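Pasting as-is:
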Amino acid sequence: MKTTNEFCQTEYGQKLYKISMNAGFTCPNRDGKLGKRGCIFCSEGGSGDFSVPYNDEEAIEKEKEKLSRKYHGDKYIAYFQSFSNTYVPDGDVDRLRNIYLTTINRKDVAVLSIATRPDCLTEEIYELLKELNSIKPVWVELGLQTTRKESVDYIRRGYDTKVYDEAIKRLNEIGIHTITHVILFLPNETIDDMKRTVQHVVELGSKGIKLQLLHVLKNTDLAIEYEKNSFKLPTLDEYTKALKACIDLLPENMVVHRLTGDPPKKLLVEPKWAANKKVVLNAVKDVLAPQEPYYVYILMCEDGSLYTGSTNDIKLRFNKHQSGKGAKYTRSHPPVEIVYQEEFPSKRKALQREIEIKKMSRSKKLELVRLNEKMGN
């Protein structure tokens, strides 16, 4: 798999950040064509809760200023995210053309990214996208979410998966960078269901994919459903394991544009852990990046006291403790032997366990030591 940053560096010679924009579009699931309540998980902002008006120069400059804290480039991805950005119920494709030509011709825009539904693409719109793509690169993101029929009906997606299949085929034919949005852990979906959806995306030839945890947001029908039934949502560990299972299905050249999602904290109902972006990203990194094992250990010191630490090399660390170069405590309480150790797949998990053990009473720590001896470790 490739990250978005890796893809942009290869294709465009630089790292690019998104500015989420909106142009006042709606959706056939909102304006009455298919329904008026939207997809069951969709917020009032149509997933564009962080977006700014595409023609509000002051708002765009403020977004660029925010990004300047971590990004020092002068080119951006103009991301039309709110609702369905190729949906023109009145057939006025010229309105689309004016919006997107205005945006793509901005000097600070390197890529035009358009989120939409596959049932909101017509022959005229395919021609428009081809035209735009001849000016600058165009990405089109399609909200598939799932291929499981029961889930399709449950979330009120409103179109058959064959419509997505045809849209991906046509977009690929005209040279558009296609991205497919998939939601993990829709109610009652198994890991195998999620993997089948991802496998379908791969087989259809989508150039990129977004994998996102299901967020229960305030003022959505999903929130009402959750309040009534409290369907199971994954823990962080369960999510990262499922994510890894899905990532393992992807070819090396597929671009992964998202791995978690970034829910608006003021709207998030569950899962609460999703609001801590740093913790989530670290957990994802632990699962996806190959890492050497990490250990938590307990040392018996000369005065009978116990010292708990963590390391990726217990023998080397123990030698440092004995030589007075390990930790402040062991300089004044020389260690005699290693009486307990646990192995973990990542430094993060080891540090969490180290903190747990340090909070234990001496008697609880000695119970761990005795159990360790009983198991022959």
